[in-house]
Amino acid sequence: MKLELSKVVQGCRLGLLTAIEQTAQHSLDVPGCLLFTHCATVPHLTQDTLHTLSNLPAVTQVTLNCLAEHHEVLEEFKEGVRKFAGLHDTALYCSLHDSATTNPAGHITNKTVSVWGSGGRMELTVAKFMALQAAIKPDFYQSMADGETWQANTSRKRVRKAVDRTLAHLDECLILHQKTQELKQAKIFGVVEGGDILEERVRSARETAKRPVAGFVLDGFQSAAMEQDLRSQLITAVTAELPQEKPRLLQGVGRPDEVIACVEVGVDLFEGFFPFQVTERGCALCFDCTVTTDPETAVLESNEERPVVEEPKENGDSCPENMTRFEMNLNDKRYREDLRPLVEGCSCYCCKNHTRAYIHHLLVTNELLAGVLLMLHNTAHYLRFFRALREALANDRLQDFKRRVLQ
Amino acid sequence: MAAVESGTCEGPAGMSAVKRLSHAAPLALRILAECPVSKARACVLTLPHGPVNTPVFMPVGTQGTMKGITVEQLEELGCQICLGNTYHLGMRPGPELIEKASGLHGFMNWRRNLLTDSGGFQMVSLVELSEVTEEGVMFRSPYDGKEILLTPEQSITIQNSLGSDIMMQLDDVVSSTVTGPRVEEAMHRSVRWLDRCIAANKNPDRQNLFAIIQGGLNADLRKACLDEMTKRDVPGFAVGGLSGGEEKDDFWKMVTLSTDHLPRGKPRYLMGVGYAVDLVVCVALGCDMFDCVFPTRTARFGSALVPWGSLQIKQKQYAKDFQPIDPDCQCATCKRHSRAYLHALFKSDTAAMHHITIHNISYQVLTKLISRIFSCFSLYRCFYCSCCLYFLL
């Protein structure tokens, strides 16, 4: 696995992650996001509907939350999750938890972590964790970690324990990784913990960097848990300790403004759960993510056709919980007779074929197609955001881009 | 065979040429082959939004959507006509909005054919029935509790706004398990309501109004209804009031009686049927069109239809079953996914339902049943023989 950086501007890294698998066929643009799935399926989508989207991320993410309960089946199947799921040609990353759901705290021990599947809680030792990875056969995966420091007022002692445990788990994982035939081609990412305590973050980063890992997962920075200012401060300190040539994947952060801020402090990769969360509340991403190439053409381009931002702030009916300012609420009565596409100029299947009124109708009548169409649009819009972010970085237009996204 | 058939002419090899019905009806039925043993026939039904090969199974997209399947997927499954539901769509989002969106075709962006029912059946099956009078059906809206009167005229007005290619008359629907004078009353009223529907149709040049033969399980009443309704110049006929819990022997008798007395040159639509075995038998009895919620509804419960029955994918026995639902099936689901994966996916995501829905629609509409019999049929010109071949192989 190789990270080729083409440019570093104001702390932002632009480049390509290559040789993700042994066959070296997939490469992932940086900064970029992964393709979020439930059990190797993008929520609501079959392969046919998924592939109406172009330029999908080269890496698909699966989680142990979903897969742990299928361990026996995967072991009998022998050929890994990619084949089991009938996935398209893609690289595979396996994380511990699913950032779109909050798991109950308090079950973690010195030797185990817990995941929650459809049948309830399952406890994993390092041995079990690694056996699962062997059955799943990802291209890269995070080592087992204690990230349960996101609750408010986690004590310093608890944070220190999380760092210690995570390092111990990493060392054990590395040993087992070497011994596991099925993981010969796979790579391990070390996990940086440390809660909201600067010294612990630095310690965790420094120690993890000493291990022979292919990259780093930044954990415990979940959106709900931390203000962006603190997050930026901590990540700055963390990335200072990490080697430049290895990728940094940040878990639990997906909101566009937070993504940009984290890219500015040296994050390369993000999970792709945000479009799913937006979909589940019946909303559609609509924020401006266009890039202008220079100030003069910006004026000219303002007259051209491009995605038009809907005024998302005022919504008549009560807003869904956690709704952000980057989206519009299709449940709202105001869209009942609106025959325009979700976002003017968007080329996704939903916007090319359907109207806001239709989506509103599907939500009102609790129809399954609402989830399908919104997932398609939200994924397309989110991927476009990342593409535009990379373009902005390449053309030194980051500040302008930031202003548009945040307006 | 009774009925007024105008403009019949015999073409080469005993096949009938295109029969045009009344000058205004936007429907043409071309009979490609007729079985010498049974009453089965293979036709091409031409409607405003394209041709439909019959026998045809029409999946039901109640609220202007086929339950999690995009219109593109539906088209790729070979579906040429599907159903929308006047009662549901009339409530939400309402005919005015749909008309504004260029009809139901425009609203859901389906470019092939649509058939809408009248709303009558839902009133029997779903809603607290207040009263049926000569005027119409009075019922209580489930959304705001208000009393609504659905008359034949209003049903047609809504269906005119929906712009469906085939509209169904409002009939006085009575369950097939009901006996006595109510059945006769309903039959006669349905005839009178048919006339009111015909008069109310604003778009006879682009929307076909089908009559619905009633009469319950009473042969005399059925025959009387057939005699009356076939006097009206409608482009097609449906057989109604069956598939509602009656005995199979009674059911089939009424179906064959109906097709005996319906004109050969007009399509016959058997409403609410159904299960694979019933489809095969009713094709042999001379029916052309079928609809049923069963394949799409059962898919959402994890039940996958196969020629030898059905698989309950959520059951433990499929957890490690790495073959597809049907190894012979060419649908997108079977080409890519195993029973084991679908079993696992049902615990995490709604997409599992979509996969089974696609398979079940493929099974009913195209791949297994009708189409394979149909291809044998075209070859052997004998539906009876094709069925034998199909079930033996």
UniProtKB/TrEMBL annotation, chain B:
In its keyword annotation, does this UniProt entry include Glycosyltransferase?
yes
Q: Its biological function?
A: Catalytic subunit of the queuine tRNA-ribosyltransferase (TGT) that catalyzes the base-exchange of a guanine (G) residue with queuine (Q) at position 34 (anticodon wobble position) in tRNAs with GU(N) anticodons (tRNA-Asp, -Asn, -His and -Tyr), resulting in the hypermodified nucleoside queuosine (7-(((4,5-cis-dihydroxy-2-cyclopenten-1-yl)amino)methyl)-7-deazaguanosine). Catalysis occurs through a double-displacement mechanism. The nucleophile active site attacks the C1' of nucleotide 34 to detach the guanine base from the RNA, forming a covalent enzyme-RNA intermediate.
- Family, per the entry? Belongs to the queuine tRNA-ribosyltransferase family.
Gene, per the UniProt record: QTRT1
Q: Which Gene Ontology molecular-function terms are recorded?
A: metal ion binding; tRNA-guanosine(34) queuine transglycosylase activity
Which reaction equation describes what this protein catalyses?
Answer: guanosine(34) in tRNA + queuine = queuosine(34) in tRNA + guanine
Extract the ranges annotated as region (RNA binding): 272-278, 296-300
Q: Which InterPro entries match?
A: TGT, TGT-like_sf, tRNA_ribo_trans-like
Keyword Ribonucleoprotein in record? no
Q: Provide the protein name.
A: Queuine tRNA-ribosyltransferase catalytic subunit 1
What subunit structure does UniProt give?
Heterodimer of a catalytic subunit QTRT1 and an accessory subunit QTRT2.
Which key words tag this protein in UniProt? Cytoplasm, Glycosyltransferase, Membrane, Metal-binding, Mitochondrion, Mitochondrion outer membrane, Transferase, tRNA processing, Zinc
Give binding positions for substrate: D117, S118, G119, G120, F121, D171, Q214, G241
Q: How does it sit in the membrane?
A: Peripheral membrane protein
Matches recorded under HAMAP family: Q_tRNA_Tgt
Q: Which organism is it from?
A: Astyanax mexicanus (Blind cave fish)
Q: Which GO terms describe its biological process?
A: tRNA modification
Which range is the signal sequence, renumbered to this chain?
none
Q: Which PANTHER family match?
A: QUEUINE TRNA-RIBOSYLTRANSFERASE CATALYTIC SUBUNIT 1
Enzyme Commission number, as recorded: 2.4.2.64
